[in-house]
Design brief:
Rossmann fold; five-stranded parallel beta sheet; transferase; kinase activity
């Protein structure tokens, strides 16, 4: 990774200057991105927000183009009557298309300072071709103990936003899927020489943000506007 892929359209230079936080669900990616945005005057892009809301029209249009049913699939088929392995496979298979939509969002952003983009769909194997160095990315994943703590303390960490016949099984499936998807992010990152940061809950969000800031230090402004 010595130079950004010249085939990637980047009209305002946003992508070549971006910093990326990928990884697993509930590792604190959004919190760290917000903290760094506040400290250094960066623009933060939250993948999950756009993926769940702004991209829905594109998702429906794609279904129409492919001849797929327009309504969302039956919630039980998605969350209950399936396996975590199948859920993970389908999630991973969908990330490349969803990543292209995220790139379109990012292309429209112009900032005098780097954009910091975070989200579980920002996969190492997708980001690697458009960055000039592995140090522009970090992959954050929760330890097993921290994952269990998040489940206890953050109800949204296990919530399934659909009515299903077996909520407990749906939650178990979702948690197992998230673990498999995170594990694949770790394997991909290590294969590509991208740093993996396991968050175990022993340090608060500010301390974790310090670690990530140190990793990105060569790209960040010299002035920490939050702490100055």
């Amino acid at each position: 990774m010595n130079a950004m892929n010249s085939d990637v359209w980047d009209p305002f230079g946003t992508l070549r200057n971006a910093l990326w936080i990928g990884g697993g669900q509930w590792a604190g990616k959004s919190t760290v991105a917000r903290l760094l945005a506040g400290r250094y005057g960066l623009t933060a892009y939250h993948y999950d927000y756009h993926d769940a809301r702004a991209h829905n029209d594109r998702r429906i249009a794609r279904r129409v183009r492919l001849g797929e049913p327009i309504p969302d699939p039956d919630p039980d088929a998605v969350w209950v009557n399936t396996s975590p392995q199948k859920m993970a496979e389908e999630t991973l298979a969908g990330f490349p298309t969803r990543f292209e939509w995220a790139l379109d969002d990012l292309r429209g952003l112009v900032s005098g300072r780097p954009i910091i983009a975070e989200g579980w769909g920002l996969r190492p194997e997708l980001v690697a071709p458009i960055i000039d160095s592995p140090s522009r990315m970090i992959v954050m994943v929760p330890s097993e103990e921290f994952r269990r703590r998040q489940v206890r303390e953050l109800p949204r960490a296990v919530a399934v936003d659909h009515r299903v016949s077996d909520p407990d099984r749906a939650q178990r499936n979702r948690l197992a899927r998230d673990r498999l998807v995170a594990d694949e992010a770790v394997r991909s990152a290590r294969r590509l020489g991208i740093r993996v940061l396991e968050v175990d809950g022993s340090e608060n969000a500010e301390a974790v943000a310090d670690i990530v800031a140190d990793h990105f230090s060569s790209y960040l402004p010299l002035t920490d506007v939050y702490r100055s």
